Amino acid sequence: LDTKKASEILGITVKSLANSRYTGIGIQVPYVKMGKSVRYKESALEKYIEDNTINHTGEAKVDWWHIYTKT
């Protein structure tokens, strides 16, 4: 899928997706670079959505407290 279609599926702008690729910050979805073209596998987008689906706001995917307080 091209960047436009991937961004539609993820519900973000094309620019946000491009910025995430460039900076490594934000949405991290594997992609394939073919010349100047960027393509995403539909299965990679589905996996990202599945991995980042939560049931309620109190549910945490990452224990950030322990990451930040680790000395």
Description of the molecule:
By secondary structure, this protein is mainly alpha-helical. The chain is 48% helix and 8% strand. It has four helices and two strands, in the order ααββαα. A two-stranded antiparallel ribbon has the order 1-2. β1 and β2 form a beta hairpin. α1 packs across α2. The radius of gyration is 15 Å and the shape is globular. The N and C termini lie far apart (42 Å). The model has no long low-confidence stretch (mean pLDDT 85).
Give the number of DSSP strands.
2
Poorly predicted runs are none
Helix content: 40-55%
Order of helices and strands: HHEEHH
Features:
71 residues; mainly alpha; 4 helices
In a nutshell, what does this entry contain?
This protein is mainly alpha-helical and 71 residues long. It has four helices and two strands, in the order ααββαα.
Secondary structure elements and pairings:
Elements lengths: L2 H8 L3 H10 L8 E3 L2 E3 L2 H10 L12 H6 L2
Helix pairs in contact: 1-2
